[in-house]
Fold these 4 entries.
Entry 1:
Amino acid sequence: DQQVKQNSPSLSVQEGRISILNCDYTNSMFDYFLWYKKYPAEGPTFLISISSIKDKNEDGRFTVFLNKSAKHLSLHIVPSQPGDSAVYFCAASARDSNYQLIWGAGTKLIIKP
Amino acid sequence: DAEITQSPRHKITETGRQVTLACHQTWNHNNMFWYRQDLGHGLRLIHYSYGVQDTNKGEVSDGYSVSRSNTEDLPLTLESAASSQTSVYFCASSDSGTPRRGQFFGPGTRLTVL
């Protein structure tokens, strides 16, 4: 049973517009959520995280929103740029499992010129 | 600059052979992890270690082993390679107790088992 789900395998967005990537989870014990970005032939790189005690965290063009009641988080990228084309992974962790990461399957974001 | 490296980057082997993938980090992190990435599955945890002489099984540990003799290295061994182990393997490391920064990843090793 997947505890972290990214239901959109791919997403195509016009350059300059907003990209919204979604992630759902089932385990209410998760207390940290992270987004990673991955280019082909490279390892994932950390992008942004949010604690379960917050509902929003912002870092430049990237904002993550957390809706605990819906067990849903989203990553907003504004404005989208060509270099944002990558696979984005959502991951979650819990203190009682020593913050091991549970990963979603990823969403491939394509930014169109 | 601190980094995490993996070798080899690409490996082709035959069924039944023993294969070892190397992982070396200079972050001085206590925690190290091995994942495999397959289409539609995201990253799945194979083995992990929270310090020297500590190793633990992850979600998909069958057919794999690790050892941790120092802080910097966590080699992953496939005891008898199988075609189902064809995958991309990532090593990662992290600080203890800093969940908000997540894990730092190596560039990956693409393994093909024929």
Entry 2:
Amino acid sequence: QSALTQPPSASGIPGQRVTISCSGSTSNIGSNSVTWYQQLPGTAPKLVIHNNNQRPSGVPDRFSGSKSGTSASLAISGLQSEDEADYYCTAWDDSLTGWMFGGGTKVTVL
Amino acid sequence: QVQLVESGGGVVQPGGSLRLSCAASGFTFSNYVMHWVRQAPGKGLEWVSFIRYAGSDKFYADSVKGRFTISRDDSKNTLYLQMSSLRPEDTAVYYCATETDSPFDYWGQGTLVTVSS
């Protein structure tokens, strides 16, 4: 099963806006909602965006999500040092009848 | 609050078997889909399997189909993953995760499985 496609890395200075892309196909992102997770070093993943653009309670409004066609994006505005982490997207794939994860994007705060 | 605690990881030889457990609390376990997700050392996340409430449906990633079996005991609020015919490429931290309001919304701390001779 192939993963959804994410850039391996992204970076920015504090206060900057960083955007992470997640590319898929008609059978996954094109047909189903996208969810995003943050994984700090040595910890379990944490949900930051669900249903393409919905933020769970407790997640700062600096995090936002969007989806268009077979691609999705996670944006972090006003980048902070504590945002330095790996970020993963996921979506259900109708053809594979399974969940697909992106390969992950490491965000570095310069 | 939701709490998930995995156990059962360890070192096993190739071809061997292992059973992982995930003890759940803080929510009505029997009502929700439960998942297993793994992460090989230094690698990304890989979905392994999920089971619907009452064990009505089970789905597996192609990489584990026929070798792993997911199950649940709602009377004990516990999720299981029986792993057999283990391979070195199954070496990973295995997480259990809930789907109460959205996919993988709560995660355990993970348990490490190492397949090596």
Entry 3:
Amino acid sequence: KAGVTQTPRYLIKTRGQQVTLSCSPISGHRSVSWYQQTPGQGLQFLFEYFSETQINKGNFPGRFSGRQFSNSRSEMNVSTLELGDSALYLCASSLLVNTEAFFGQGTRLTVV
Amino acid sequence: EDKVVQSPLSLVVHEGDTVTLNCSYEVTNFRSLLWYKQEKKAPTFLFMLTSSGIEKKSGRLSSILDKKELFSILNITATQTGDSAIYLCAVNQGGKLIFGQGTELSVKP
């Protein structure tokens, strides 16, 4: 069965712009989480969605937001991009909230 | 403050060696501990541990959790060059994964 699909794979944006990243979870999975990975901070939790509701949120500013649709697909949005937002953004899919999480290939965002 | 600490941070071994990677944690609302292997991009799921003392095994990899001492180990026997990767430990805190820094394993031929 298909894994977690993230689009786009690579993205270059300029400071001040906004960006939307997409994640399609494994078929049947209802929980989607987002993580930011940087060399300095490692993997950090952004937020988690289950059945279209945000159920958990990490310590990121309000410029980072997300949503989940009725088909469990999720998007995350970053507004007013800063250079420090350059990172690999990973989406993880789980059947339920506390079950195994499977990651997508990630979106590499570069802010210039 | 919740934290997950992995050791060593990096390790170089030769093919055929056995390695043990360590993960200790101090996390409130612990639900489970997960191990991942990250080569290029996506962390690949290895194990999820919820109960103490029950070893999980997959081929040459095995892992065990000690919830009293708050740590887990990941063992890799008869290492191969394909095992070279970053191994990540994460604790599930009610849906949110808290990750350690990772152990970078390099297996030389």
Entry 4:
Amino acid sequence: AQTVTQSQPEMSVQEAETVTLSCTYDTSESNYYLFWYKQPPSRQMILVIRQEAYKQQNATENRFSVNFQKAAKSFSLKISDSQLGDTAMYFCALGVQGAQKLVFGQGTRLTINP
Amino acid sequence: DTEVTQTPKHLVMGMTNKKSLKCEQHMGHRAMYWYKQKAKKPPELMFVYSYEKLSINESVPSRFSPECPNSSLLNLHLHALQPEDSALYLCASSPPFPGTSYNEQFFGPGTRLTVL
């Protein structure tokens, strides 16, 4: 069975600061993918960034980057130069190759203050 | 077209009503999903259709009835719902997973359902 844990229910930072959201996971599978999804108050879930487990290089998408520590089963999201529009729920998710389910963490509510 | 659409955006229904939620995608995805999401919680998987066949039913009560008429369309038929079924219902789709490098899901904006 797969599990995903997000230990920070809520976080709050000032605009332009850098913030890191934590995620740990557990799986016995060797082929899997990790995702960070963002769900703003307008509610549509949007993919922020993805990481294939077989890739050693950490994924980056503009101001968003991950720190993927495979041995530690850790997958944190760093948001640089945070903006008001980054205010949202952030969900970490694990998908196993060939399976159709995503396993979601409980989410972190991030607030960016002006 | 790179989006998943859902109608209606909001729905209020009584416990004796019959209603349907609709989801559509034109990305050529062959897997489609229904999720239920309560406030401040992650989405909970309800059903998965793969190549228009029901592949996963997460022990959802029979008052929820999914239907996949074609590869682009997914419906969720609702009947005799309870107030605790009030939630945001999300639809998602993903590329055919055999042979793809990842199983990313694309979500629609959701239908906010209130059962009175």
